[in-house]
């Protein structure tokens, strides 16, 4: 994971055009400034202006804008948190049945004195890595690897931290042959039986069943500009309107943002991102995640396995339910 | 990108996401070509077939035996003993919680579908008996928004699990679905979790579950409760998968192999336990239920089911026996084994 290097092609978010122009100007000015006080004032003024612009822009992001932020090539991925936020990590490979899917990374992690099992989608950073990881689209062996390691964590008494970042599970011939649906279904079912704490973070893209396959948790958290959706906006637009260009409308309709999902009770908490999104200041984001993981793990301290399982089942059994709408279950 | 949902009413009987490719065989009513709607064209053998005969043969093609999607109410009649059906939770109605609008408001779409189908949602749930064996039954009806799973479908399946658990009865589910209902956004995705949560509790309390995958079953339904019941059956020729064939074809940009994602393909790949033809279904279910009754949760000792179970149908060699109740399709020839081997490609 530590080999992930950044490709620094200027990534253009359409709504950030003005911001990027200001950022470029600021870099130029800073270079010129040196000891020149006059220019330093100018730098300060531009910095203030840029900050205002960022605040204003990011306060008014549409659902589709947020999807583009969640997919930003410079946005921290699972590997960045492993390298930046963990004090120790031992990757454990393979499902011991078929293979080692690079689209899901699993291993033993530690932050301070907190030890846990990490299960996360891996998107990769360079083009080569992205291709190798299928852009974070896992195959059945990836989900089986995840389950195997989660069950190992249970035996070892380790809590589980998952990081969700996938456009969706891979739709392909091999994936179907090896039982993509069954693998995801098995994970969902078996995650309800894990007698250790499970915390899930949607760190970027939460693409439908492929996300949920590692998403059954006692605490489900989302990064501020991540999205979590039953179908990609493109897929939704293609099916409903036969027009992929209407994805922004679909994103709006699907209600896929952290704010909406928290209101619906699907997400338990939101991890705030630095001003202008996680891609603008990855080190701040990584530090926030480090703190959040410790805090969330601590919040589940002292709960025994039976209680955790019972609470987890109850939580998902009643998600989004409106009082009195459904008969009370037996 | 992988959950597929039906966006059209089944009355269009056109291609849904799950059935969008030319190889998908669904019963299509081509009234334009066939005056009076008396005749149908089989999408599998292209034969012209008499509608009445298809219905009499439990929605199978009289010529080639293809198993068409069966309407939910017919499925219930076909599966259960006459006079044993007691519907549950039919009053629960869908709700447009997100204010979803595509060609029109989702709320209007529900209203139209309820009016057209005479049922409140895509899942029909209740109690009944299969050859004298009490079961809790849940049937997904494809004609209600493509059998898609939204909040109500998920809730009703979970409630079925709860009833089965409380009453110690086997849970029997039939699926026909395009997957999660995208008009309900993430609330629909969460039904995958909700159903598995209830199933997990049922398993823990020693329950027994059978799921029959019928044509077509894809997306979030396949990737949740449907694939993790104790026994997974499939009807011959049924399209079963995670991603719809169109999605896969457009992703990998090549043609899909013949027979891909068919029940026989899944059997070969180790994804389903048995392929069972419609005329054999009741007998097979009864036999499986008898084996299921040996489980510790049913109060049995190893390998012997409790004496309280009805003995109306034999527990061994039931495949040779005519069921005690006459149901359409019983007179059809051929065992499940024949179907599986002859249709396999």
Can you describe this structure?
By secondary structure, chain A is of the alpha/beta class. Chain A has 2 domains: 14-60; 67-317, 2-enoyl-CoA Hydratase, Chain A, domain 1 (Alpha-Beta Complex). Chain A has 14 helices and 8 strands. In chain A, strands 1, 2, 3, 4, 5, 6, 7 and 8 form an 8-stranded mixed β-sheet that branches. In chain A, helix 3 packs across helix 11 and helix 10 packs across helix 11. The model of chain A is unreliable at 1-9 (pLDDT under 50). Chain B folds into 2 domains: 37-66, no CATH class; 69-293, 2-enoyl-CoA Hydratase, Chain A, domain 1. Chain B has helices at 51-56, 72-79, 106-117, 151-167, 185-204, 219-222, 245-252, 263-268, 281-292, 336-343; strands spanning 39-41, 48-50, 86-88, 123-130, 133-140, 171-177, 209-217, 231-234, 274-275. Chain B has 10 helices and 9 strands. The longest helix of chain B is centred in the middle third of the chain and has 20 residues, at 185-204. In chain B, the strands form 2 sheets. A 7-stranded mixed β-sheet of chain B has the order 3-4-5-6-7-8-9, with helices on both faces. In chain B, strands 1-2 form a two-stranded antiparallel ribbon.
Short précis:
The complex is a heterodimer of chains A (330) and B (345). By secondary structure, chain A is α/β, with parallel strands linked by helices.
CATH architecture verdict of the largest domain in chain B: Alpha-Beta Complex
CATH architecture assignment name of the largest domain in chain A: Alpha-Beta Complex
The helix count of chain A comes to 14
Task: State the CATH topology of the largest domain in chain A.
Answer: 2-enoyl-CoA Hydratase, Chain A, domain 1
Q: Give the termini separation of chain B.
A: 29 Å
Biggest sheet strand line-up of chain B: 3-4-5-6-7-8-9
Estimate nothing, just give the exact number of structural domains of chain A: 2
Largest sheet of chain A: 8 strands, mixed
> What structural class should be given to the helix and strand makeup of chain A?
alpha/beta
CATH superfamily of the largest domain in chain B: 2-enoyl-CoA Hydratase, Chain A, domain 1
Number of strands of chain A: 8
Q: Span between N and C termini of chain A?
A: 47 Å
Provide a count of the helices of chain B: 10
